Amino acid sequence: MPTQREVQDRISSVKNVQKITRAMEMVAAARLRRAEQRIEHLRPYAGAIRRMTRQAAEAAENVPNLPILAEHDEMKNVGLLLVTGDRGLAGAFNSQILRAGLQAGSEHESEGRDIAWYASGRRGVSSLAFRGHEVKGSYIGFTERPAYGDARHIAEELMAAYVDGEVDEVEIFYNGYISPLTQEVRRETLLPLQQATILESEDEDDEEDEERPEHRALVEYEPDPEEILQRLVPDYVEISVYRALLESAASELGARMTAMRNASQNAGELIDDLTLEMNRARQAEITQEILEVVAGAEALV
C-alpha cells in the first residue's frame, strides 16, 4: 500500500492537471462563441453563392469552355483535402476526419485511382506522413482562426491541380459544426462542377423554390448564365473551402471544450478516490503507531 505522503503527492499532481483542463475549457468556450458568430455570418452568403452557382448551371444550355468547368474524360486521379486541427486534446475531432479520409482513399484505390493528398492542420499533415502518404499540399498555422486568404490559397492550389490535369476530382472532408457536443463528418465534392455537392438540393431555400416554381421562372440573367457561371465557380470553390475551415474551427473548439470538461470531471473523481486511499493509509499508519506504542509498553513491564 502506498504511503500517505505518496498519495498526497498524487493528489497534488491531479489537482494541477485539473487546473490546466479547467483553464483550457474556459479558453475554448470563450473562443467558441466568436467562432459561432463567424459561421452564422457566413452561412447565408455561402448558401447564396452555392444556390446561385447551381441555378446558373441549370440555366446554362452549355457549360462554358473553360478548363475549370471541363469535366475530364477519365477519373484516374482524385484529390482529397482533409481539414484537421493544428493541436490535439480535442477528443475524436482529428481522428474521425483521418478515418473517413483514409477510408475514402482506400475505396478510390480499390477502383484503380491514384490519390493526391492535401491536408489542413498539423495533425492531418503529420498523420498522413506517418502512414507513408505523400502530402501534396499542407496548410498549417491557422486552423483555430482561419482567414479568407487562407481559404483562397487552398482553393487556388486545388483549382490549379484540376486545371493542369493533376487531379480529375476534388473532395473535401471536414467536421460540420452542430453544437459544442455534436460534430459530424462531412464529405463534399468540389470539382468538377458537374458532380459537385452544390448540384444537390440540400438548403431550405431549395425546398421553397421547389414548392414555388414560379419564383424561379422569373429569374433573368444579364449577362448570359454561361458568363455568370464562369465568374461564380472560383468564388464557389473559395467560399466552400472557407466555410469548411470555419465549421472545422468551431467544431475543434467545441470538441476541446467538451474533452476538457470531461477531463476535469474525471480528475475530480480521481481526487475523491485518492482522498479515500489517503485516509486509509493515514488510518493504517495511526494503527501501526498505536500497536508499536502498546508493544513497547508491554516490553517495559
Q: At the first level of CATH, what is the class?
A: Alpha Beta
Could you name the CATH topology? Pyruvate Kinase, Chain: A, domain 1
CATH architecture label name: 3-Layer(aba) Sandwich
The biggest beta sheet is recorded as: 5 strands, mixed
Provide the residue-averaged pLDDT: 85
The total of beta strands comes to 5
Succession of helices and strands: HEHEHEHEEHHH
Distance between the termini: 33 Å
The percent range for helix content is 55-70%
CATH superfamily: ATP synthase, F1 complex, gamma subunit
Q: What is the SS-derived class?
A: alpha/beta
| Backbone CA Rg | 28 Å
Low-confidence stretches: 201-217
What is the count of helical runs? 7
> In what order do the strands lie side by side in the largest sheet?
3-2-1-4-5
Write the layout of secondary structure elements.
Blueprint: H1 4-59, E1 77-83, H2 93-110, E2 114-120, H3 122-130, E3 135-139, H4 148-163, E4 169-179, E5 182-191, H5 204-211, H6 213-217, H7 225-300
Parallel strand pairs: 1-2, 1-4, 2-3
Antiparallel strand pairs: 4-5
Please explain how this structure is put together.
It is a single chain. Helix 4 packs across helix 7. This protein has helices at about 5-60, 95-110, 120-130, 150-165, 205-210, 215, 225-300; strands at about 75-85, 115-120, 135-140, 170-180, 180-190. The protein has a single domain (about 25-255), classed as Pyruvate Kinase, Chain: A, domain 1, CATH 3.40.1380. Helices cover about 60% and strands about 15% of the residues. Mean pLDDT is about 85; it is low at about 200-215. By secondary structure, it is of the alpha/beta class. The chain starts with a helix and ends with a helix. A 5-stranded mixed sheet has the order 3-2-1-4-5, sandwiched between helices.
